[in-house]
Automatic annotation (TrEMBL):
PROSITE patterns xrefs: UVRD_HELICASE_ATP_BIND
Keywords: ATP-binding, Helicase, Hydrolase, Nucleotide-binding
GO biological process, one term: recombinational repair
GO molecular function: 3'-5' DNA helicase activity; ATP binding; DNA binding; hydrolase activity
UniProt xrefs under InterPro entries: DNA_helicase_UvrD/REP, P-loop_NTPase, UvrD-like_ATP-bd
Annotated protein name in UniProt: UvrD-helicase domain-containing protein
Pfam families: UvrD-helicase
PANTHER family xrefs: DNA 3'-5' HELICASE, UVRD / RECB / PCRA DNA HELICASE FAMILY MEMBER
Organism of origin: Candidatus Spyradenecus faecavium
């Protein structure tokens, strides 16, 4: 059970951070920890669902080997399902909201304070609809179209308002501040470096491809070779990077890529060489295709940014008009007024533990590199106390190189600072 002590895990992209966190969750439960005493925090609702799904999947598939005296995977899964209403797999914002409600008196808040991002009743849905109405009123037609497309409004025609309301809440939670704090990242192609160039005479290049003489290629393995090179040829790694950014919806993208790099293509089960002129034309056309997609994507992104700014303004105005708080304002209040008092050795924090369904004995933070200074001020004392306890732990995982939430105060340097918690 040594691996269940307090620790950190610095892991790069694709190396299994969610695997490590979900496996630890499983092992803690199998070792006897009440599932509701494990607090697993992350940054988006989608990530919380991913963590929970990973925990359930590992136990269902018996992927975690129990040590002597532990619960089996089936027993651990049953314990988790029994504790489902009390599980604490949530966003940091949701955790802060829960703590704030328990500390409402100390924070000078009304015990029944409301958050703009929370609620699913008629009043909350009406406010979200009003947010959308004001946004559509105050933005351009193009930006409004981007926003409506984003939420797939046409799919909800005649249906309940709940699906749209939920998507709007989730989107504001995950991306609302990004549009406001990082305007330079929306639709600015100059930030991507050298870009593929548009063709000056696209039709002439197409005609060149039609007119070039071709020669048959008889190698029966040529098709596999073409496909392999189109996917893995080292000289087109940069092409792969671009494709990953824009994902052009063109069935012939791979084929044109092979034309450009290999100067050959398949026609009626024969492989034909394009020749020097044809290959040059294919390269220019590929660049043109990519350039057009990039510019189209940038235009859509810029319009979406304008729509998001309007959405933020509408949400802020409504929150102020109705006396509600945003998650950002609430976290700032927690950090400034409560700060280091959130400790299981502190009388005030023991009161929090008592008021919660159960005490937090194991704290886990996913994608820790994106934790903001304000959020860490709320969590750090609790993390310290848990790390020093005999039957409690603090675990965090992340990758400094992947820090993406600087726009909301995320500070990747905290990843190193937290290593000194114990």
């Amino acid at each position: 059970m040594d691996d269940l002590g307090s620790q950190y895990l610095s892991a790069s992209a694709g190396s299994g951070k969610t695997f490590a966190l979900s496996r630890r969750f499983c092992r803690l439960v199998m070792a006897g920890a009440p599932p509701e005493a494990i607090c697993a925090l992350t940054f988006t609702r989608a990530a919380t669902r991913e963590i929970f799904a990973a925990v359930v999947e590992r136990l269902l598939n018996h992927e975690v080997e129990p040590e002597p005296g532990w619960l089996t995977c089936d027993q651990a899964l049953a314990a988790i399902l029994d504790a489902l209403p009390r599980l604490q797999i949530s966003t940091i914002d949701a955790f802060s909201s829960r703590v704030a409600r328990l500390f409402a008196y100390e924070l000078g808040l009304s015990p029944d304070f409301a958050l703009y991002e929370e609620g699913s009743g008629p009043e909350a849905q009406a406010m979200l609809r009003e947010t959308v109405r004001r946004t559509l009123r105050d933005t351009t037609a193009a930006s409004a179209r981007e926003l409506l497309d984003l939420f797939d409004v046409q799919d909800d025609a005649g249906a309940s308002a709940e699906p749209l309301s939920k998507r709007l809440r989730d989107f504001l939670d995950d991306f609302g501040e990004l549009a406001r704090a990082r305007p330079e990242g929306w639709g600015d192609l100059s930030r991507l470096g050298d870009l593929p160039q548009l063709c000056k005479d696209r039709e002439a290049l197409v005609q060149t491809l039609r007119d070039v003489p071709v020669a048959g290629v008889s190698d029966k393995h040529a098709e596999s070779y073409l496909n392999a090179v189109a996917l893995y040829h080292p000289e087109i790694e940069s092409v792969r990077d671009w494709k990953g950014r824009v994902q052009p919806d063109r069935k012939d993208f791979e084929k044109l890529l092979a034309f450009a790099e290999l100067g050959a293509y398949k026609y009626r089960n024969k492989f034909l060489e394009l020749g020097e002129r044809g290959q040059a034309a294919a390269k220019a056309l590929w660049a043109d295709l990519l350039a057009r997609d990039l510019r189209q994507t940038a235009a859509h992104t810029a319009e979406l940014h304008r729509a998001l700014l309007a959405l933020n303004r509408a949400a802020d105005d409504l929150a102020e008009e109705t006396g509600r708080l945003t998650f950002g304002a609430l976290t700032q209040t927690l950090a400034s007024r409560l700060g280091g008092r959130l400790s299981v050795a502190d009388e005030a924090a023991m009161y929090v533990a008592y008021r919660m369904d159960t005490a937090v004995r194991h704290l886990m933070i996913d994608e820790f590199q994106d934790t903001s200074v304000t959020q860490w001020e709320v969590l750090s004392s609790l993390a310290h106390e848990l790390a020093e306890g005999d039957d409690s732990t603090f675990f965090y995982v992340g990758d400094v190189k992947q820090s993406i939430y600087g726009w909301r105060g995320g500070d990747a340097t905290l990843f190193g600072d937290a290593r000194r918690v114990p």
